[in-house]
Write the structure tokens for this entry.
Amino acid sequence: MNRKETLRVVGMLDKGSPLGRQYEANKNDSKFFRHTEFYSVKQALEWLKALRYSDVRILQTIFHEPEEITALEPVKEGYGEGFFVVLSAQKE
């Protein structure tokens, strides 16, 4: 039997990060974010689990206010600190 694997990659602004909470709190004052629905990484992980994805990998970056960034931000495993998170997951 030939099984295909599906890889999904999601990039998101993490509602649960410190900067994400700030954006959520002030989104009504923003022309860009006013109609945006922010989601937490935990919610995205719940959706991936419900859809039976596995082998989830999570990376995060952007640890400072965007206007304070003067160099490339590091990329770290996990979530909760970085504003921008990338999740990858596979499904057979």
About this structure: Residues 5 and 92 are 4 Å apart (CA to CA). The radius of gyration is 15 Å.
